[in-house]
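Quarterly update from the structural biology core.
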Amino acid sequence: MSPGGVLEELAIHAREHPEDGAVLARFRALLEDTTAPFSREQFRPGHLTCSACVLGGGGAHVLLLHHVRLDRWLQPGGHVEPGDGTPLAGALRELREESGLSVLAPLAGSGGSALVDLDIHEIPARGAEPDHLHFDLRYAFAVRGNPSLVRSEESTALRWISVAHLGELTDEESVTRLVARARARAAALEDGVASRARQGGGGS
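Predicted structure, tokenized:
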């Protein structure tokens, strides 16, 4: 995985979400000023992770798992592995490992990236591992139909959650913001498809 490639993706995100300027600066500093931004062994200031926000039911549901270690409802995701060519590939791998899902569509924006959100959060110390920060790159996906799920040992529960009732499980701003952004991306893509269909129909 190339720091330069991630920086290019962050530049696309910056154009779509200029309000993320402060967090973008911290991501850039991690990539440009630290020796091993993708290594889970770099604890200061932290390292990159990648996760997947998966929408189902036309955007009415989101896939969440109850994380064993963190005891919270979260989207699937985790550390970058050496074989991950891009953060998107890492997010897909983590999603496959934690849910069994493999057939789904990245929700790419106008810049061609499915990245919809950035988040920096603290991971508590455990054993010889000190507390540290995860710099999470978060990608949006959609599935059709009702694909079967396979829970991994990293979670105690895995299920589709109605977005209308998301607040009953979590009020974490980082999760609710991510879901809102993924749904906005999905809606924008649907509007684009509908607009092109109208234009095509008008020319026949």
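The chain has one domain: 3-202.
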